[in-house]
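Figure S4 source data
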Amino acid sequence: MPLLAGWADLDERESAAGIEPGHPILIDPEFQIDPVLAGFLARSRFTWLAEGRRAAYAKDYRLLFSFLWQRGKYWHEADPDDLLDWESWRRRGQPGSRIGGSKWQRELAALRLLYEWAEKKGHVARSPVLVHAVRLPDGGTVMAADQAPRDVRCSDVKCVTPRTYRLWLEVGLLGYDISGQPDRSWRGRNDGRNAAFTDLLFSSGLFSLGA
């Protein structure tokens, strides 16, 4: 393709820059790549995240940066007031587009990861994500975001019907297939002991299946 003339060594150049397959790349509305952001995405704690989490964080960055661009600001020019307005738009904006506490908590985590890295590296004077110290029951302290949500669902607990439990027990612990016949590939151990233990938990109301 004529458009790719002179880019035959693109794979080697990306590898030298630390860009691997599936690596997110952010391009601004003027089709420019910020070298600082590229460095963050390629050589920071961001790269330690699972692939799905990296993709989700990259989307969070894109949305905020687009919001800032409409205000005539680049990502490194964001201040706490911008994030307050961003939270208001994300959480109390138009019906149907609002996000809940869990999603906002993830977005805050993504922004803290970026801006605390940028502050440490000297790319921003101060992170726009304001934090405060929270004392733990054991006497220690952790830093929590001032804009941390209060409506986060810690878990999604679902009821387990006897039929679902019995199917899980037979297939997961006793080595039967879905038709109720012994699975010849089963290599489990201590089947009876494990089944007795879960039967006790289920009959006492202490058993649940993770979603």
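Figure S5 source data
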Amino acid sequence: MEHRFIGKTDIQLSVIGMGTAQLQMLPHKQAVRTLLSGFKYGINWVHTAPDYGGIEHWIAEAVKKSGKDIKVLSQSPGSVELLEDYFENTCRLFGKHQLEVYGINCISDLEISVNVWGANGMIEFLQKKKVKRG
């Protein structure tokens, strides 16, 4: 499968990835097998989020079983206060010191009432994690 660099980074992702929101509709073993099949064919990234039905541990199981360097792209809803817990939990769950790509849900909606861009805001928190872990 073809892989491409993300912008000017050294991160290479397969041109096809796996979103996981709908895996919660499958039985556990079938969900893990589905992910493993994708990894077998060269997919090297999955997208997950804490609000995908609590199946992150299934995804972590498949990533571990694959024995491959699978990139975990995740995201957080909410607020600066919740962001650190979501971020750190995702790192722990997937046994990673850092996450290659991390997003913030509905950022345009959040800007109205949440500190996204300012001092001690969500972006500053993620920048500190990048420097600290990178």
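The helical segments are 28-40, 56-66, 80-94, 107-110, 122-133. The chain has a mean pLDDT of 89.
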